[in-house]
Amino acid sequence: MRCPYCQHEDTQVMDTRASDEGDSIRRRRRCNQCDKRFTTYERIELTMPVIVKKNGSRSEFEHAKLRGSLMLALRKRPVSADAVDAAIHRIEERLLSLGEREINSGQIGELVMRELKRLDKIAYIRFASVYRSFEDVAEFRDAIDEIDLERQPVPATRENR
């Protein structure tokens, strides 16, 4: 590590500690030439995958764009900001856990739809109508029927009692 004061490349680590949150390491260093002390931080650098769009073009993942899509679908719906933040966090964690350098935009759309279905059924239908390019009322009806089927209780049978 280069000294920020004299630019000498020989520095010595005096003390190392993990941050309170545990997401970085703090190191106190001393320059072996000018004897000045300074602090450095070591953090994990995670990179989101590049998004491959339907037309084959590629773009960087944008947190703000993901948030904007969710907020548009949730406009005037009774969903808390904390719930939206948690959904965004789950989507981003899932993208990171895939370990891929590139991801199809369709996969992100499916993750968003899954989260919207959990948050608010109306927002889910709004997003699905655009994402799946609904062209008639029957497609809306199919999406609503899909939600209704998930909410209906399973009738008791001898096998599931």
Short description:
With 161 residues, the protein is an alpha+beta fold.
Looking at the structure, what is the overall shape? elongated
* Number of helices in the DSSP assignment: 5
Specify Rg, calculated over alpha carbons: 24 Å
* Main β-sheet, spatial strand arrangement: 1-2-3
Overall residue-averaged pLDDT value: 86
Largest sheet: 3 strands, antiparallel
> Care to count the β-strands?
6
In whole angstroms, the N-to-C terminal distance is 66 Å
Structural class: alpha+beta
Helix fraction, binned, reads 40-55%
Note poorly predicted spans: none
Number of domains: 2
Strand/helix succession: EEEEEHHEHHH
Word description of this protein:
This protein is α+β, with helices and mostly antiparallel strands and 161 residues long. The chain has 2 domains: 11-43; 50-151. The chain contains 5 helices and 6 strands, in the order E-E-E-E-E-H-H-E-H-H-H. It has a 3-stranded antiparallel beta sheet with strand order 1-2-3, with no helix packed on it. Strand 2 (24-31) and strand 3 (37-43) form a beta hairpin. The longest helix is centred in the middle third of the chain and has 18 residues, at 81-98. The chain is elongated.
Topology:
Layout lengths: L10 E8 L5 E8 L5 E7 L6 E3 L5 E2 L3 H11 L7 H18 L3 E3 H15 L1 H11 L5 H15 L10
Parallel strand pairs: 4-6
Antiparallel strand pairs: 1-2, 2-3, 4-5
Helix pairs in contact: 1-2, 1-4, 2-3, 3-4, 4-5
